[in-house]
Design brief:
This protein is an alpha/beta fold. It has a single domain (3-289), classed as 3-Layer(aba) Sandwich (Rossmann fold), CATH 3.40.50. Helix content is 26%, strand content 20%. The protein has helices spanning 10-15, 47-64, 80-89, 191-201, 217-224, 236-247, 268-272, 276-282; strands spanning 3-7, 23-28, 65-76, 93-101, 117-124, 136-137, 153-154, 158-159, 207-210, 228-233, 287-289. Helix 2 (47-64) crosses helix 3. The radius of gyration is 18 Å and the shape is globular. Bound molecules: S-adenosylmethionine.
Length: 291
């Protein structure tokens, strides 16, 4: 069991065939081409070039994936059509469009509804997923609901129980910060999101791939769940951050606190595995590549 952090541009890494491992699950959280600040990426590309790049990433991920393996492609809701087209044209089979309704306030609109969700397209290599674990959660009952749930409910395609790490108050301790208290990465994904994706679509021992690894949220969740992982990241500062994050898993990164949220899942112990203390004893040292 281990993780591999590749420092460089994922397109170049693909073109030079520097990833040879077979993968089982990809989490794709690229820059959204909306003018955010990235040190090593221009986030306002011509739309055509941007989607050409996304297609190349999807095609390469598809090529590396075992039959039945999965991809979760996260994007702004306004890009839904382009995401589905991109996945279809790179041969992925569509399974679900997940609505991640963030627990934060909506972005107001003056002439349309405020925006409160992001999409995550879930697709597989071939029609049938090789693994799909039906997770059960126990969200609060709707008001005036007649019956108590005894065993929770299956996770649906609307995820409204995971808070994003905003730039303000709700970034909480999970948001990685430098010594001056500044956020290291404003687009850091919540680890609870990766927990759900990895638990749903992989088994212990599988390999999870993240070509836009950022701060390494995917790798941290994979490590704690006894999955192997490969992350590519273009910004050397982020690469250093991933390395440190994985070598010293912080209290706020620990997944064990979410275990009880999934307690009604039939095969939970089989897909979650041992507690993280056991994992740390067994985990291998990271491999750091240059480009
Ligand atoms: C939206 S962020 C990912 C955040 C990540 N999910 C996390 O939890 O930290 C996208 C990341 O992709 C990186 N990036 C941009 N272009 C890249 C490329 N061509 N190859 C690899 N990484 C790239 C950026 O530096 C940024 O860290």
């Amino acid at each position: 069991m281990g993780y591999k952090i590749i420092s460089g541009n994922c397109l170049e890494i693909f073109r030079t065939k520097n990833v040879k491992d077979k993968i089982h699950l990809t989490f794709l959280d690229p820059p959204f081409n909306q003018g955010k600040e990235y040190s090593y990426h221009e986030d306002l590309m011509e739309s055509e070039d941007y989607w050409k790049m996304m297609k190349e990433v999807c095609e390469n991920s598809y090529y590396l994936t075992e039959e039945g393996g999965a991809i979760y492609f996260m994007q702004r809701e306004k890009n839904t059509e382009a995401v589905l087209k991109c996945l279809r044209e790179s041969k992925w089979s569509f399974q679900n469009l997940i609505i991640w309704k963030k627990k934060t306030s909506a972005v107001p609109g003056s002439y349309r509804y405020g925006k409160q969700f992001q999409v995550i397209a879930f697709a597989t290599k071939g029609e049938m997923p090789r693994v799909f674990n039906k997770l059960r959660i126990s969200p609060p009952m709707p008001a005036n609901y007649k019956y108590e749930r005894e065993n929770g409910m299956y996770v649906t395609d609307v995820w409204d129980d995971i808070r994003e790490l905003t730039s303000g108050y709700f970034a909480v301790n999970e948001a990685l910060r430098d010594k001056n208290g500044e956020r290291i990465h404003k687009q850091q994904s919540p680890i609870a999101l990766l927990l759900r994706i990895i638990l749903s679509s992989s088994k212990i021992g599988d390999t999870i791939f993240d070509p836009f690894a950022g701060t390494g949220t995917t790798l941290s969740a994979a490590l704690q769940l006894q999955r192997n992982s490969i992350g590519i990241e273009i910004d050397p500062l982020n690469v250093a951050c991933i390395k440190e994050r994985l070598e010293n898993i912080s209290e706020s990164d620990l997944l064990q606190k979410y275990y009880s949220d999934y307690i009604h899942t039939e095969n939970l112990s089989e897909i979650w595995g041992d507690s993280f203390d056991e994992v740390t004893k067994r985990s291998s040292k990271p491999t750091l590549f240059g480009n």
